Amino acid sequence: MKKFIKLIIPSSIIEPTIRTVRGFQTSLLYAFLRLATKSQFLSSLYYALFSNAFAREHRGCIYGQLKYLEDCENAQGSQYLLRRNVHRLEKGLLMRPRRNLFATDYITETFRGYEQALAKQSTCAADVGEIGWAHDVLSQYFTIVSSHPVVDGLRDQFSTLKQIEQVELPRIPYKRNLNEPCSVDYDDFLKLSYRRRSVRWYLQKPVSRNLIDQAITIAALSPSACNRQPFEFRIFDDPEMVKKVASIPIGTKGFSDNFPVIIVVVGKLRAYFSERDRHVIYIDGSLASMSFMLALETLGLSSCPINWPDMESKEKEMSALLGLEFDERPIMLISVGYPDPDGMVAYSHKKSLEQLRRYN
Description:
By secondary structure, the protein is α+β, with helices and mostly antiparallel strands. Helix content is 51%, strand content 8%.
């Protein structure tokens, strides 16, 4: 049809007409956007009527809240409410000055979550460690807080629960040993940071899963809001799966066929009870990913973080391939492998200190 129109209508007419139409569309969009910025209601109305750009996020947040409530009921595996509240107790225990009584507004739900988790405890090392941490913090809490009708009743119930095997050092707030200097000095860390570059060319040799696991062990030590760690590293080292996963994001054309390993960092909105925390998956996931990539360099491996724009078509494709639920969102992809010594990396000049920081 387009070819036919071009044959019967001269380009001298078509091109000005297209520019006029596009100009009108831009002016109309500009007017709508100006109006929509007048209030939150009009902004919401704009997206309800004219754009579905946030439709997946809306559904993801609602689905995540549903999964959060189901998690609280089932208490199977890692329980986000329990992790959050135990960490809140930790912050109360290390507060200066520490109050004689605190957490009365959430200690009941924390105790019930622990009680459920203990009853359904598996032999999984992850479950054992998490429940042990919750036990030690709750034990310390009930030891130091003052008498209170709610706390006293729970304290008595806690003493009747199944005992957890004691470890040499209780998993409670502690003082770091600052007498010894840090074993990694600034200059060494600066060298490591310069060494970590986005590598796009790898040697075609298999990557040990043990090395990847070591790097993820480091990533797990990254800070996370209320220690919920709402992310998962989905690792693909089967050549066919690597090819499929690496072909989905934009920006990898021309070099994705040489990835030995591709990782999808997936955020889980089910970690939160409210939409207010919907962006934390990207913050926590990125913090862990940076630690992961630095750890890879110490193990002789290199990586390249791959941008993941929020595009509906790409989200659908990745969700279908990975079998993601509605609240699970790709945060970024990371290619991993042994760097090809003949492969070049981008210089990528970084902003100056003066451009990046401002005091007070």
